[in-house]
Amino acid sequence: MQRNPYADFLRAFSLLIVILWHWSFTILVWNDNGPYATSPLGFTSGLWILTWLLQVMPLFFYIGAYVHLKSWERAAARGEGLVHFALRQARSLAVPCAALMGTWIVLGIIVTSVWDIQWAWQAIIMVLSPLWFVAVYLLLVCLMPITVWLHRRYDLLVLVVMAGLAVIIDILRFRVDIPGIEWVNMVFVWGFCFQLGYFYDRISGTGSAPRYSDGRIDFAYQAPRFRQQAKVMTAAGLFALVGLVFSGLYPGSMVGVPGEDSNMAPPTVCIVALMVFQAGVAELLRPAVLHALGRGGAFAKATTVFTRFALPLFLFHTTGMALSRGVEWAIFGPQTEAVEPTLMWWLLRPVSVVGPLLATLPVIYLFGRRWETQTTTPPPRIFPVEDEEVGDGGDTARPDPARTRPKRPAR
Questions:
Q1: Is 235:46 a contact under the CB 8 Å cutoff?
Q2: Which stretches in the chain have pLDDT values below 70?
Q3: Minimal CA–CA distance to 207: which of 193, 197, 222?
Q4: Among 150, 160, 182, 368, which is most exposed with the fewest C-beta within 10 angstroms?
Q5: What string of DSSP letters covers 114-141?
Q6: Whether the predicted model's global pTM rises above the 0.90 cut
Q7: In 10 A of CB 405, how many CB atoms?
Q8: Those residues with Cβ within 8 angstroms of residue 304's Cβ, 6 or more apart along the chain or in another chain
Q9: Is omega for the bond preceding 399 within 30 degrees of 0, making it cis?
């Protein structure tokens, strides 16, 4: 069964955005209790609107569910049961995360015992905090035997119920003020994002896409009705976000901002709307992205490299960031860190990733190469497309006599 190159791209892209956000937009400020993190969103009016595109954790859950489902279908063809598959997939992610957490905990014990640096635990929590979503993701992977059964038995009704339960939890949170009830949405909201991934073939239309003569699917193909469906999802999610945010109940930012309520921890129904919006945007961009990947230029090569190392880079990016900041503070002192974004701070954002990247690469080389990801490249689309039902319009390259035009699906 052929891997979907766009799914590989979306998973890697979502992790890349998280990494770059942490490296570039985390402001570490020192006080008497040690370092704490803040965000430029708390200082710059209107910047929160960018989080509607850059908060891509919903997209990661969405495409991750699709990838796991397809992986299980391949495993099922070899006779593997879904329970065994889910536990195996969860273990493959849990082992490196547990190793990373264990290493930092041991370092924390040593540092606090030998040098009595009490703020070390606060720093370690900051380093490990981006792994919070891994625990939720692992839970959803382990629940695949249940959620796949629900998907096959009740189809779209599962999404409606999960979204409705997320709304009810928010009502109980804001109206009734039941302590701790908001954390139940860690299951319903992220579960909605994960469950939506089971519908990826129906959202993208790849199940009815044409095939090349060697049997490979043309994943860049997009029929007009699926492009229209993507536009509907984009508009519906966007209008839902506008209504929720400007109702006054929810903050505009889709990431946590110090001193404000959060749509992420715990998640609110805004993340459900954000998921629908981002799924639509992702589909609108799919033909253009796959055409760029198929041309094999710098974009395709960079995407291949990052996709291969996306998981270890994500796991160790805060470790590299801590090492980089530690060297910087040891040389120049912690007072060099900006306490709020200035013009110079913004101008330095493009180069702010250099130090953390250079510090992360050796860590990946020593500990992370075993978790490299298999990648695939989309087949080059070299045939002129004359069928009016092809949504992306094709391209104008000359046909290669050595190849056969992709077969079109039956109408």
A1: no
A2: 1, 334-338, 368-411
A3: 222
A4: 160
A5: HT--TTHHHHHHHHHGGGHHHHHHHHHH
A6: no
A7: 14
A8: 375, 377
A9: no
Dist. CA 247–CA 241, nearest whole Å: 10
Conformation bin of residue 118: beta by default, left when phi > 0, alpha when psi is -120 to 50: alpha
Q: What b/e string do you get for 273-297 counting C-beta neighbours within 10 Å, with b at 16 or more? A: bbbbbbbbbbbeebbebbbbbbeee
Cβ atoms of 337 and 345 closer than 8 Å: no
Question: What is the DSSP code string of 64-118?
Answer: HHHHHHHHHHHHHHTT--HHHHHHHHHHHHHHHHHHHHHHHHHHHHHHHHHT--T
Q: Can you tell me the distance from the alpha carbon of 183 to that of 170, in angstroms, rounded to the nearest whole number?
A: 10
Contact 301, 21 (CB under 8 A): no
Question: For the segment 312-362, what is each residue's pLDDT rounded down to a tens digit?
Answer: 899 899 999 988 988 887 787 766 666 778 888 888 889 989 999 999 999
> What φ, ψ does residue 192 adopt, rounded to 5°?
-60, -45
Quote the CA–CA distance of 13 and 15 in Å, as a whole number. 5
Phi/psi for 348 (5° steps) reads -90, 0
